[in-house]
């Protein structure tokens, strides 16, 4: 490994990190603006033009608040909880292909931190580890309400991970690869997976809501029953980390949705742009296309938050175990039958 | 010392230390968390052996699913160090016997797998990839694979039955 690769990957990792943080910051602003728009209000408009400096003001407030610690015997775990939540939210972005390649300084630069050939499994693995941040933080708070909130969040995430994994299996049967880069490349043009696997997409979308702990699945933060959920006892930047992790998760989920089902960085007419305007412009436009798609999903997340009320806990479990999991298994079977239709027809002699 | 050797030494130290801490720690939640760290370092060992798939699946299954359910039950049961029950002698004997059996199986695996891995090394095929693993599992080792899944199914049905029984008695 020569030093240029290290520099190149380092630049990409820092850029992705900065992008994730920036998007998480401005998602808080966008959420307020969308909420205000849906409820016919103005929203934040004091700090800067259109309230654009509101996230900076919020960050400053969170940083300067007094750090309050509950009387807990597990001070270290109390500290580790938000750290795990934040780092797992940031880790997923390593395997996402942000664009195809740039041709700079006489070398091809892949716009991706690392192209694992098991990228999709890596994503599922990181998501499944993310539960620890909530569970450990909630338990170490030494508070009943935090513990119940944490247990609720964890059981919800574990339940919906099953349906999420099963819905992805149907997609994998079609793509035949686990590498997110290859899955993106297969969807060149308008050959998006959502047209072939609509059911898989809907199940994955619902599970993404549950994994990011967003309404209608934000039972962990059910204020009327559980005060603030697992982060009741947290204050200052530790709470900020939990909130930030939620927005970072939303951003990453939107990106994964765009990459898996909506063609990733592909846009119609990309091959024409490559031929006429060159590789660099085509792929910068590709990054722009991915960015527009993921912003659409982020807006969708917010739209749903201010439209659909929160589910009851038994409804949540019913939806996860009795509807989504059987549906995804049926989806896998249908996909298998369609893929093998020629063999089946030959067997029965049609 | 090469970098890989240093990483191996650090990982092994972490694995052993957390494994011992799992056993000796008084607080059940702390020992569960040590076990999670132990699983992560074992996944690191898999990565050192260049088997990415095994490492990730290990994290998903053990750290992501089993240990979370474990933590779950421990948190809800609110176990304290005083409540630790004294294990009867037969349980200890069973533990020793199962440990010896696992050792036997592991030794058998290591002895048997060596010539098979050698074959792949000579052909130059990436035997850690999902394609090769899937083909081997569903062709050569189809029957043991299905037996393992039947075993899991039996365990699942058993648990459901046990939890139902308690409800009927009420």
Biggest sheet character of chain A: 2 strands, antiparallel
Strand order of the biggest β-sheet of chain A: 1-2
Care to count the β-strands of chain B? 0
Q: Identify the biggest protein-protein contact and residues per side.
A: A-B, 24 and 20 residues
Give the C-level CATH assignment of the largest domain in chain B. Answer: Mainly Alpha
Radius of gyration of chain A: 22 Å
Main sheet of chain B? none
CATH fold topology of the largest domain in chain B: Four Helix Bundle (Hemerythrin (Met), subunit A)
Seen as an oligomer or otherwise, the chain set is: heterodimer
- Give the rounded overall mean pLDDT of chain B: 84
Please identify the structural class of chain B as seen in this structure: mainly alpha
Query: Percent helix among the residues of chain B?
Result: over 70%
SSE topology string of chain B? HHHHHH
Count of alpha/pi helices of chain B: 6
What's the number of structural domains of chain A?
Answer: 1
Catalytic activity (chain A): a quinone + NADH + 5 H(+)(in) = a quinol + NAD(+) + 4 H(+)(out)
Transmembrane segments (chain A): 6-26, 76-99, 119-141, 162-180, 192-210, 241-264, 284-304, 324-348
GO biological process, one term (chain A): aerobic respiration
Protein name (chain A): NADH-quinone oxidoreductase subunit H
What would you note in describing this structure?
- Chain A: It catalyses: a quinone + NADH + 5 H(+)(in) = a quinol + NAD(+) + 4 H(+)(out).
- Chain A: Belongs to the complex I subunit 1 family.
- Chain A: NDH-1 is composed of 14 different subunits. Subunits NuoA, H, J, K, L, M, N constitute the membrane sector of the complex.
- The complex is a heterodimer of chains A (350) and B (170).
- With 350 residues, chain A is mostly helical.
- Chain A has one domain.
- Helix content of chain A is 69%, strand content 2%.
- In chain A, helix 1 crosses helix 11, helix 1 runs parallel beside helix 13 and helix 3 packs parallel to helix 11.
- The N and C termini of chain A lie far apart (56 Å).
- The model of chain B has no long low-confidence stretch (mean pLDDT 84).
- Chain B folds into 3 domains: 84 residues, Four Helix Bundle (Hemerythrin (Met), subunit A), CATH 1.20.120; 42 residues; 43 residues.
- Chain B has 170 residues and is mainly α.
- Chain B is globular and about 55 Å long.
- In chain B, helix 1 runs antiparallel to helix 2 and helix 2 runs antiparallel to helix 3.
């Amino acid at each position: 490994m020569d030093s240029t690769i290290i520099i190149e990957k380092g630049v990409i990792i820092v850029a992705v990190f900065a992008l994730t943080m920036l998007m998480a910051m401005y998602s808080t602003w966008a959420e307020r603006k969308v909420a205000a728009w849906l409820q016919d209000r103005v929203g934040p408009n004091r700090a800067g033009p259109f309230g654009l400096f509101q996230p900076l003001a919020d960050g400053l407030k969170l940083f300067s608040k007094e750090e309050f610690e509950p009387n807990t015997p597990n001070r270290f775990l109390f500290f580790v909880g938000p750290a795990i939540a934040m780092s797992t939210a940031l880790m997923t972005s390593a395997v996402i292909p942000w664009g195809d390649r740039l041709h700079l300084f006489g070398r091809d630069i892949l716009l991706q931190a690392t192209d694992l050939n098991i990228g999709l499994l890596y994503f599922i693995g990181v998501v499944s580890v993310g539960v620890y941040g909530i569970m450990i933080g909630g338990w170490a708070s030494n508070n009943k309400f935090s513990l119940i909130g944490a247990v609720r969040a964890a059981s919800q995430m574990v339940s919906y991970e099953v349906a999420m994994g099963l819905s992805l299996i149907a997609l994998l049967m079609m793509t035949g690869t686990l590498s997110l880069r290859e899955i993106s490349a297969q969807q060149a043009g308008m050959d998006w997976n959502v047209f072939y696997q609509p059911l898989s997409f809907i199940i994955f979308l619902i599970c993404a809501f549950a994994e990011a702990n967003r309404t209608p699945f934000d039972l962990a933060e059910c204020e009327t029953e559980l005060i603030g959920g697992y982060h009741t006892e947290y204050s200052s930047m530790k709470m900020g980390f939990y909130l930030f992790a939620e927005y970072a998760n939303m951003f990453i989920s939107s990106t994964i949705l765009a990459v898996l089902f909506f063609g990733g960085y592909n846009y119609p007419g990309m091959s024409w742009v490559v031929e006429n305007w060159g590789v660099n412009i085509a792929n910068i436009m590709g990054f722009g296309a991915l960015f527009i798609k993921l912003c659409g999903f982020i807006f969708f997340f917010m739209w749903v938050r201010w439209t659909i009320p929160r589910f009851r806990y038994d409804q949540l479990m019913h939806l996860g175990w009795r509807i989504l999991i059987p549906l995804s298994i049926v989806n896998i079977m249908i996909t298998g039958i369609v893929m093998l239709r020629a063999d089946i027809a030959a067997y029965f002699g049609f | 010392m090469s970098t890989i050797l240093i990483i191996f030494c650090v990982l092994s130290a972490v694995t052993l230390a957390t494994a011992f801490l799992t056993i000796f720690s008084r607080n059940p939640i702390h020992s569960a968390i040590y076990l999670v760290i132990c699983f992560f370092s074992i996944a690191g060992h898999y990565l050192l052996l260049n088997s990415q798939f095994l490492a990730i699946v290990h994290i998903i299954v053990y750290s992501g699913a089993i240990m979370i359910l474990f933590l779950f039950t421990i948190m809800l049961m609110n176990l304290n160090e005083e409540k630790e029950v004294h294990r009867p002698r037969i349980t200890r004997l069973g533990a020793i016997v199962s440990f010896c059996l696992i050792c036997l199986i592991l030794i058998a695996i290591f002895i048997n797998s060596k010539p098979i891995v050698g074959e792949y090394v000579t052909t130059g095929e990436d035997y850690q990839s999902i394609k090769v693993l899937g083909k081997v599992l569903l062709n050569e080792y189809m029957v043991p694979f299905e037996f393992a899944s039947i075993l899991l199914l039996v365990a699942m049905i058993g648990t459901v039955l046990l939890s139902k029984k308690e409800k009927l008695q009420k």
